[in-house]
Design goal:
With 817 residues, this protein is of the alpha/beta class. It has 34 helices and 23 strands. Strands 1, 2, 5, 6, 9, 10, 11, 12, 16 and 17 form a 10-stranded mixed β-sheet that branches. Strand 9 and strand 10 form a beta hairpin. Helix 22 packs across helix 33. It binds ligand 26W. The site of ligand 26W has 23 residues, from helix 7.
């Protein structure tokens, strides 16, 4: 027996007892919020009991520990997920029934922590889940943003952003550890002096101190006592308030300094894949990187003393993209300034401890901090970066003698900026890409100069998703059906899902599979009705594109494709196609004008197709408001068609594609990111691939003219004209002129249609046409859907984490139940 679990009766008693003690009420009298508190704290007690059981094992055995540094952890709600990992969900469900508690409503009481933008943040959360499931000692480290990603509302077709104050009613899952508070220093100046042994040392003075206070959230391993922590650092001023000003009645001034410090953990920046050199963002990055490294060093010393040679064998530091990159010079600073190590030794220890994963090749996402900003804000770190850069360039000179330009491209500091990607590549022992194609592009282009020097440092470990949240939790009906067919071993070994393949041939199984999908569509319909008052046609194909709104992801191509379908039906009353609901879920960065206009366009198309009697029963377009983790949990299981349309070469991996696939959706997409590997796994007959390849995209730059497509393809020309002729918005025909212009002429001197929307549009629409024909062949479609689920096991993040561990971290799985 792995670990003790509460029975149904124990759960009932615990819930009733908590209601009595916390709120002095009974189940019948409790509000939904109180019920949530009582249930969640019951689950929390179970988790902490397990934590106590396995606590101390790592320290006792002196095992290596991973610190996974990430500016974002998009963990989603915890209650249901934790019940899944406790493996007594059934007992809870029974207890709820007997107590008359509605479990879905209960789960919805929990505010969702939106501590991330999109793929990078959600990946970090899936990784933590798998680390715990595999019993690997690890800690996720990030910022405790008081405001997570904005809540999105759609008003008159436009996106409106509302603040997300998720901590208003407290967070039951976190444990504050004021005893592990660290100081982080900003500004000031650095003086050098010679110590008693004649060595030059550095003293940082005149700085401002910000306190980093940690809050830990438990991440429970599936069916085990393993509990890792997600540590979120909160910024606090060391000053309470300036009593002198306060007594003089200058309240605002008295609070000012305090607020300046605490603003650091106020809000998550909502830009995804787009860099802006904001000072506060750099402060955020250094803040949590510094606190994490200080803690990691102290924790190491506690177990292993000052045996620095052991450090890389006992501590793995992983930087999730470049955002925590300042952790690298921070470790150097601590080793040199605090513990007196020599440069060479400190550099060696640092490089052997750090690994780096890159998540994007978009040049506008690469972080470059102005040199003078780094110098002013982090003077000692700046000196270390300079020294690092000097030594790096000397080494590079030996390899690339005389090639100044190349060395300049590879430098940590150059042309007035600090290049975070170069810092991470130069100072890590391993650099990882997130899919095969992405890793190839890193080797061939982004980091080619480094790759030539040290090819073995570059890995490609394909992303994954946790099948516990994305299948077991989000789609319990499909999970039970899989159990029924092949047993439940797949829950611990997701690769076993492949055993489902023969069930494609089983007509009865196919019908059960179809029934699960249909029920999930009904649930999504009720979800959309209660939240947005929208009625879904559950007999139509659910065709979904859900991801951040970005030009390279080409929601615009999807929208124009719908327009083309609309025109076909409108001009030919006999046009034959199955009814389809196009579902969009997407947040646009608040300052991204064009992305917001695309949202407006989708909503205009929604109105257009609904008003036309010829199309209103065949095409529906719905925009799902506030796409977030819990919305995705409703969306993925209900979707038939997964839209993965990025311009080839641009989407590093994608992970939504894996979630849809696992839930039995069939992909229509380009040969990009992990779509390539989905294609390899399911085979060409179980996926719809279209469009330019990454090589073709590359060759087309500078050659492609979108106006050629416009001039030669009448259907394309028609939809383009409809953008500006008032079809979509009669009261303001110019509303979408900007999009028209960007596609045909380019904006402000830029190239026209840089993401090849018009180029790929005809092939896309033809492929969609073939797909809808196939959908009508029920047997064929169900076979494809089952095939996709069966082949999805390799995309479990358990596989990803095992690979990271074998090739990068080398952690030992703890010997606990
Ligand atoms: C500095 C601004 C900024 C913010 C976020 C730059 C870059 C980012 C992230 C790296 C963007 C991101 O989330 N990338 C996504 O990472 C996923 C996980 O690896 C991939 O699946 C997606 O393809 C990639 O777009």
């Amino acid at each position: 027996m792995a670990c003790s679990r509460l029975s149904k009766d124990q759960i009932k008693k615990a819930i009733e007892g908590k209601l009595e003690r916390y709120f002095g009420c009974t189940v019948e009298e409790a509000t939904e919020g109180q019920l949530y508190q009582a249930v969640a704290s019951t689950v929390r007690d179970e988790i902490m009991e397990r934590r106590t059981q396995s606590r101390g094992v790592r320290k006792k055995t002196g095992s290596k520990k991973l610190y996974y540094l990430s500016a974002e952890f998009l963990v989603g709600r915890a209650l249901h997920n934790n019940m899944v990992s406790l493996v007594n969900e059934e007992n809870y469900t029974q207890a709820f029934k007997e107590l008359g508690i509605d479990r879905r409503r209960l789960f919805e009481q929990e505010p969702e922590p939106g501590l991330g933008n999109g793929g990078l943040g959600r990946l970090a959360a899936c990784f933590l889940d798998s680390l715990s499931a595999l019993k690997l000692p690890a800690m996720g480290c990030t910022i405790r943003y008081e405001y997570g990603l904005f809540r999105q509302k759609i008003v008159d077709g436009y996106q409106i952003e509302l603040p997300d104050s998720w901590l208003d009613n407290g967070n039951l899952w976190e444990i504050c550890r004021p005893d592990q508070t660290y100081e982080v220093h900003f500004g000031g100046k650095v003086e050098d002096y010679v110590d008693v042994s004649g060595v030059t040392r550095y003293r940082h003075t005149g700085y401002q101190t910000v306190l980093a206070v940690p809050y830990d959230m438990p991440v429970l391993g599936y069916d085990s006592t393993m509990v890792n922590m997600l540590r979120t650092w909160s910024a606090k001023s060391p000053k309470t308030l300036d009593m002198a000003s306060f007594n003089r009645g200058q309240y605002a001034q008295a609070m000012e300094e305090k607020e300046l410090a605490e603003v650091i953990s106020k809000v998550l920046y909502p830009e995804d894949n787009h860099y802006e050199g904001k000072e506060l963002r750099l402060k955020q990055q250094y803040f949590f990187s510094s606190a994490t490294v200080q803690y990691a060093v102290d924790d190491f010393i506690k177990v292993h003393g000052y045996n620095w040679n052991l450090f890389p064998e006992k501590v793995a530091l992983h930087v999730n993209d470049t955002h925590p990159g300042m952790a690298i010079p921070e470790l150097m600073r601590i080793l040199i300034d605090k513990y007196g190590l020599e440069w060479d030794r400190a550099e060696d220890i640092t490089r052997r401890s750090f690994a780096y994963t890159n998540h994007t090749v978009l040049s506008e996402a690469l972080e470059k901090w102005p040199e003078d900003l780094v110098k002013r804000l982090l003077p000692r770190i700046y000196m270390i970066l300079q020294e690092m850069n000097k030594r790096l360039c000397q080494r590079l000179w030996d390899v690339y003698t005389g090639q100044w330009e190349r060395i300049g491209r590879m430098a940590i500091i150059g042309y007035g900026s600090v290049h975070m990607a170069n810092l991470c590549v130069a100072m890590s022992h391993t650099v990882n890409g997130v899919s095969q194609i992405h890793a190839d592009i890193l080797r061939r282009t982004t980091f080619h100069d480094y790759y030539m020097v040290e090819p073995n440092r570059f890995l490609g470990i394909t992303n994954g998703i946790t099948h516990r949240r994305w299948l077991m939790q989000a789609n319990p009906a499909l999970s039970s059906l899989i159990d029924e067919a092949i047993g439940d071993a797949w829950r611990k070994e997701p690769n076993r899902m492949i055993d489902l393949l023969p069930f494609e041939d089983d007509a009865a199984f196919r019908e059960k599979f179809a029934k699960v999908k249909q029920d999930n569509k009904l649930y999504l319909a009720s979800y959309m009705r209660t939240r947005q008052g929208i009625l879904l046609d559950t007999e139509s194909i659910f065709d979904t594109q859900a991801k951040r709104l970005h030009e390279y992801k080409r929601q615009l191509m999807n929208a124009l494709g719908i327009m083309m379908l609309y025109n076909r039906i409108d001009s030919n009353p006999n046009y034959d196609c199955p009814p389809v609901t196009f579902i969009f879920g997407a947040k646009a960065a608040p300052g991204f004008y064009r992305a917001k206009l695309i949202i407006r366009l989708i909503n205009a198309i929604s109105d257009l197709v609904a008003k036309n009697p010829r199309t209103k029963d065949l095409i529906h377009v719905v925009f799902l408001e506030n796409y977030c983790v819990s919305a995705a949990e409703a969306l993925m299981p209900a979707t038939d068609v997964s839209e993965q349309l990025s311009t080839a070469g641009k989407e590093a991996s994608g992970t939504g594609n894996m979630k849809f696939m696992m839930n039995g959706a069939v992909t229509i997409g380009t040969m990009d990111g992990a779509n390539v590997e989905i294609f390899q796994n399911v085979g060409k007959d179980n996926i719809y691939i279209f469009g330019l390849s990454a090589e073709e995209v590359e060759r087309n730059y500078g050659v492609y003219r979108s106006s050629d497509i416009y001039e030669t393809n009448p259907e394309v020309r028609r939809v383009m004209e409809q953008l500006i002729d008032g079809t979509l918005c009669p009261e303001n025909p110019r509303m979408f002129q900007e999009l028209y212009h960007a596609l045909l002429f380019g904006d402000g001197g830029g190239v026209a249609d840089p993401y090849f929307v018009l180029k790929d549009l005809p092939a896309y629409v033809e492929t969609r046409h073939i797909l809808s024909g196939d959908y009508r062949n029920r047997e064929k479609w169900l076979r494809m859907a089952i095939h996709n689920t069966a082949c999805s096991g390799v995309f479990s993040s358990d596989r990803t984490i095992s690979e990271y561990n074998d090739k990068i971290w080398h952690l030992k799985s703890l010997d606990i139940d």
